[in-house]
Write a structure and sequence with these properties.
The chain is of the alpha/beta class. It has a single domain, classed as 3-Layer(aba) Sandwich (Rossmann fold). The protein is built from five helices and five strands; from the N terminus they run E-H-E-H-E-H-E-H-E-H. Strands 2-1-3-4-5 form a five-stranded parallel beta sheet, with helices on both faces. InterPro entries: CheY-like_superfamily, NreC/VraR/RcsB-like_REC, Sig_transdc_resp-reg_receiver, ST_Response_Regulator. One of its GO terms (biological process) is phosphorelay signal transduction system.
């Protein structure tokens, strides 16, 4: 699917595991349709980065300390409804379970999926 957005995306990766953040930042920054990748380690940092960096899309883990992805996604969507949020999590039940538990997300990608699946999910959301 081709993105309908004409300018390259600004992406925020939110995950409490440093290796996951670094790996996703590297993988995403190599995509021609993504111009900037910021990172945060919890939901509270995600809110601050969303305010500061104005991302087009957030890839957010749901299970994190300080503030989880469920609370952070709901807050971010209430303040910035145009930001797309992809939950990137090992939470069982996928998008339906995530939204039942309060996450306000546009898509869900299982952490066990390959990187290409996440990239396709991102393209489909934007």
């Amino acid at each position: 699917m081709t993105s309908t957005k004409t300018s390259p995306l600004r992406v925020l990766v939110v995950d409490d595991h440093e290796l996951t953040r670094c790996t996703l930042k590297l993988a995403l920054s190599r995509q021609s349709y993504i111009k900037a990748v910021e990172v945060a380690s919890n939901g509270k940092e995600a809110i601050a980065k969303a305010q500061k960096c104005n991302p087009d899309l957030i890839v957010m883990d749901l299970h994190m300390p300080v503030m989880d992805g469920w609370a952070a996604s709901s807050y971010i969507k209430s303040q910035y409804p145009d930001i797309k949020i992809v939950a990137y999590s090992a939470a069982e039940g996928g998008k339906a379970r995530a939204t039942e538990n309060g996450a306000t997300i546009d898509a869900f990608c299982d952490k066990g999926a390959c990187t290409l699946s996440l990239l396709e999910t991102i393209k489909n959301v934007v």
